[in-house]
Amino acid sequence: MTNQTNKVALVTGASRGIGAAIAERLALDGFTVVINYSGDAKSAQAVADRIEAAGGRALTAKADVSDASAVRGLFDAAEAAFGGVDVLVNNAGIMKLAKIADTDDALFDQHIAVNLKGSFNTMREAARRLRNGGRIVNFSTSVVGTRLESYGIYTATKSAIESLTAILSKELRGRAITVNAVAPGPTATDLFLNGKSDDLIDRFARMVPLERLGTPDDIAAVVAFLAGPDGAWINGQTLRANGGLV
Would you indicate the residue range of the signal peptide (predicted)? Predict the structure, then answer.
C-alpha cells in the first residue's frame, strides 16, 4: 500500500470488471477516486459504496468518453468536487470480435469512437488539465502481440493507443507527468468470459506459462504500480501484463 492522500484518480469505465478493481485498488492506496461510467449507474454506485465502506473517498460520474464535451464535463466534475485530477486511467473500451471481411461499418466506427477517440479525448483533456507530477495509464491489449483472428479492428485501435502513449509522454516534457499503457492478456472478466465455452477458456489459460487466466486484481496491481511512487521512472512504455503469453 502507498500513501496517496489528497491525490485524485479518474478511472474511466470503472463500474465493473478491471475498471472496478482498479478503482478499489487505487482507493486502497489512498487515492480519492472518480468512478466514470457510461450507462450502469447502479454498478458504479456499488463500487463507490465499497470504497467508502472501506474508509476511502469516491464519486461517480457519468460520461460517454467518445463525446469530447462529456469528457470535459467529467474533468469539470472532478475539479469541482476535489480540486483537480492527478491520475487518469483510460480503462473504458469495447471488444466486439469479427473477421475483417465480416466487419460492417457500424462495428468499425464503434470501436474507433470508444477505444480510440474515447481514449484520445481523455488524454487530450488530461494533457491540458492534469496536475504536474501526475500519471496517465492507458489500456492496450496483448493481442497486439498474439494477433489472433477476429480481433483485427479491436487490436488496431489498441495499437494506435500504444503509439499515442509514447508520443504524449514526450509532449508532456517538463511537467513530471508519466504516460504508460498496460496490455492485459486473457483476463477473467465478464467481457472476456461471455460467449466462450469452458474448453476455449481452458485453452486460453493453458497458453499462458503460468497456466491460468489473469484476474482483474492482477491488472489493477500493475496500474497501481504505474500510478504510485514506485512507477515514477517508467514513462512512454507499454507493460504486457499477461503471465508470459507473449
Answer: none
| Options 31, 120, 139, 154, the catalytic residue | 154
Grid coordinates representing 153 are 479492428
- Per-residue confidence in pLDDT tens, the chain, 246 aa: 566 668 999 999 999 999 999 999 999 999 999 999 999 999 999 999 999 999 999 999 999 999 999 999 999 999 999 999 999 999 999 999 999 999 999 999 999 999 999 999 999 999 999 999 999 999 999 999 999 999 999 999 999 999 999 999 999 999 999 999 999 999 999 878 888 899 999 999 999 999 999 999 999 999 999 999 999 999 999 999 999 999
Could you give all domains of the chain from N- to C-terminal order, each with its CATH number?
Answer: 8-241 (3.40.50.720)
Helix (H) or strand (E) holding 79: helix 68-82
**Cell digits of residue 71:** 469528457
188, burial (CB in 10 Å: exposed 0-12, middle 13-18, buried 19+) = middle
